[in-house]
Design goal:
The complex is a heterodimer. Chain A is α+β, with helices and mostly antiparallel strands. Chain A is built from 13 helices and nine strands. Chain A is rod-shaped. By secondary structure, chain B is an alpha+beta fold. Chain B contains 17 helices and 41 strands. Helices cover 24% and strands 26% of the residues of chain B. Classes of the chains: A alpha+beta, B alpha+beta. The interface between A and B is large, with 97 and 105 residues.
Amino acid sequence: LSCQILVLASLMSEPIGYPDLDKLLPRLDAIPSLGSEALAAEIISVLGRKSGVLTAALRSVATLPVEQRKAYGGAVNRLKVRFEEAFARRSETLDAESRHRDLVGVDLSMPGRRRWTGAEHPVTRVVDEIVDIFRGLGFAVAVGPEVETDWFNFTALNFPADHPAMDMHDTLYVDAPPVPGEQGGRLLLRTHTSPVQIRTLLESPPPVRVVIPGLVYRNDPFDPSHAPAFSQIEGLAVDEGISFVDLKATLVHFAHRFFSPTTKVRFRPSFFPFTEPSAEMDVECQLCHGSGCPACKGTGWMEILGCGMVHPAVFEHSGVDPEKYTGWAFGMGPHRITMLRYGIPDIRLLYDGDMRFLEQFVPGGQKQP
Amino acid sequence: MNVSRRWLEAFLRRPLEVRELAERLTMLGAPVDAVVPLHADLDEVLIALVEEVRPHPNAERLQVCVVNSGGAERLNVVCGAANVVAGRKYPFAPVGATLPGGVRIERRKLRGETSEGMLCSARELGLGQDGEGIWELDTDAAPGTRLVDALPLADHRLVVDVGPNRPDLLGHKGIARELSAAYSSPFRLPAIPSPPVTDVPPVRRVGGDTVVGGVHVAIEDLEGCPRLLGVVLRGVKIAPSPTWLAQRLEAVGLRTINDVVDATNYVMLELNQPMHAYDIARLRGPSVIARRARAGESVTTLDGVERALTPEMTVIADDAGAIGLAGIMGGAATEVTGDTVDVFLECAYFTPKGVRRTRRTLGLSTEASYRFERGIDRWGGVEALRRCVEIIQATAGGKLADAPVDLGPGPPNPPRIFLRSSRVTQLLGIELPWHAVEGYLVSVGATLVPKPADGRIAVEVPSWRPDLVREVDLIEEVARLHGYQNFPAELRAFRPGLLDDAPIERATTEVRRGLASQGLLEVMPLPTAPADGPESVQLLNPLSSSEGHLRRRLLPGLVRLVQRNWDNQVENVRLFEIGTVFTAAGAGERPLEERHVAAVLTGGREPAHWTGTGESRIDLWDLKGQFEAAVGLAVPGGVVQVQGNGWIGLDSQGRTVGRAGPLEADAPPWAAPLFGYELVLDAAPRQPAHFEALPSTPSSERVLALLLAEGTTVRQVEQLLRRSGGPLLEGVTIESDYHGPELPPGTRSVAFRLTFRAPDRTLRDAEIDSMETRMLAALAAELGIQRREAGASGGGE
């Protein structure tokens, strides 16, 4: 105990020489031990505008004889600065202590405050990714109408009239009279994005490199893998000297960018009226990586797109000289690719607008609170 | 098309490994969708020799057999079949085996005698209908051999996806031809196990009308039936087909019926030539005539359905009327039955368009119509008819009454296509040696007439390949047979396209990202909808009446999605869509297509949080803010204005392009209010953001509390403040909107926070005072607005 008294004594402020000021010194020394309420009261009591003791002392300077004013005024001001500093220091200490005390009591594992986050549809993200890859290969984005005439949707694309090839396109027709004119005809909902090939070629001369995303329609009822309307993305490259090797190389490049650089890719012959030679591109099953699983029906492969060299009849219908120009085209289904990529078992989930589904695709993730 | 591996092996005279076979067909352009192992469930059934048969001591109808099933021990088997004979071989299921249908064989006692296995009937093994007694086998195989190896039964059914351009692959011969080209090994028709009784004489070519074996045959509709072959077989014995025939049909999933009908089906599956057999006793005339149906005529087809005919349809008729639908299905009245003695075999070429038309009109698709629609080999009928006669004679017997006849014009010169080597290289991008090109074409049946002088060849295409019409068709054959896997995948130099992105796509991407950043989730519902006013575009053949039209607006569809979320007890729903809407135009015009943006909002303004934030619900002001943001994104230069109890969006020309407001919906009681907007997405190019230098002088602020009379809008006041305030008034924001009893009746108090700034100096109070005075004077003069009394403040603010 005596030791503590000694320490306190040694810290006591030196007398100033004015008794009224000296008697404030113990209060100055007491500041570091004040609580926050006592501190606030003490600040008013010492420095308050109306009744603060130092304020009063400063005011009284003017009443002193001139020769005393300077010395006394200086002493008051110096003391005021010391008080202000002590108050500030104490206030800071108290704040820090209080901050510390606040956190000590808080369970920091409580959830943080979030904002609603939006998201693009997973199919949109897949389309954008596909488009981005083709942009890097000199392609631009083109679009066309969803209500088409049978000329654009079938005839110009070399579908033989009344042929089994049409059975692959169960068509929804518009209940309206045919559109007259050279390229008119019966109105229908386009069954593929390929009519935009014709529209693009009719409007712009080669070289043409476009990708065409859009909705297409089929008279198919909903089931886990079919929908009456779904997205397609078409690609078309036309120029002099374009060959089957360019087709294969570009699409293999695409598959390696979109899936992974080591993904196995294969081309096999197929049939589309508007391309010849025609091919289908398979990539190694993204679920079993080739060993065979129910998703790929045990084959180890997944069908990704149909493609081929533009048929000369298509060029003839779109005013392009098929002897001078050659080209290739492809079509793929982003809805299907979205299902493959995310393992979505039922295509209807992509149409239902279910918040619980959509929020799974929010960038960074978000749970419905 | 179902294909039997064993049948192909019979063509190629070599074993085929099924996985390799499936892979090979896939890479030739006929992908195999499924491989089904057949009779794998008979794995455990063995050939057994019955060495001794004695009566069961305790049961009159049972016998005890001593059976040699290949092991060292002889087994006792109790058997109930009357036809069991010592010294014969039978299928035997040993103890532990499981039969088709799941029956497991166990050692058990039958009336005191132990039975160690079971002798089986064909029906018990799932091999046909014969359940009368056990199945006596005519085989050299040693006891203990697996039944599937001895007969042989083991096979695979391959489900091949044949494209509409390749009708030739709808028969085993066509597929064998492809494999023969791929394996470079020959193929020929499989031998018929029992040899034919007589040689079939050459087909007699006649005009459009003749008599064969007493049957009058004629073509009256050359358009629908340009070719018809026929033959009469007398004295056939209708019976179940022999095992080899039944097995081939069953291997590809066809039910066996009787020896004659099975023979016609066999030929169809082997040579892709549908055929039909008629019971001559039931033909009136007797005659077989290909003609158009007459108005009002009808026919009852084999499936027992009476079908009304129209003059567009080609039929087979006898003297009294139609007896079959040409190329689709025969008639019930003339079908071959157990009593049939004399048959007429029809082997025709029906035109694809005619068959397709009738098939679609009647909604009746068959194995035959499928093949005729795709185009069978027009000149393959002779081979098919001879084959069919040989099989019938080998199975059902019968005598040829006459040489077969062939009605219809003779074969034309095969079509020729010219192929240039330069074109092959131009299209395929690789140099192929010319002899390789020729080799590929010859391997699929083409004949070449070289014309070395001009670097091209004339190719005569075979009649079974109606798909080969142009030069490019031959180039595809070359590429296909060369193998797509053998083309390099090297990226070569290219010229970028000259086109720019479609403006609407650019705009869509920008709006979509903007709305997602507003906390909305994108949806893509179906664009079909119920009728929505007279301008809806109606569909002719919709899937359902609730989807019978194309939508004219996006919002109704979004409201349905909200209701579905409510059904799932989801309260917080914030969805947007960018999609096409359709409006009917005048007759003979395309409907108008427009891209719209729409959103719906309901539920909490923020996610619920334990601190209590997130308890407030989305209200009108959230909607207005969202709508303003959407108009800013979707309509360059667009503005939002009040209209009715909501807002409209105007484009830069003042046209209404969108609306926002509260929405009606079938909401559960706990649901929060629903709001939404819809607007037209403008494709016009977006202006780049406009940069302004950051201010270097401080701003000053004043708050003006103003009394607004009823009917005066904040917008009016703000416009007047800006106009009268002058260029140094930088900003006007609303601080509060107060209604209270102490205010003069019919007024409210709105506090405006005004920000002043001069770009070149710090504003003095006096300057601001004079601006404020000017504004207050303008407010009083133009809108009769007074400042709220100072000191009267209280409550609400």
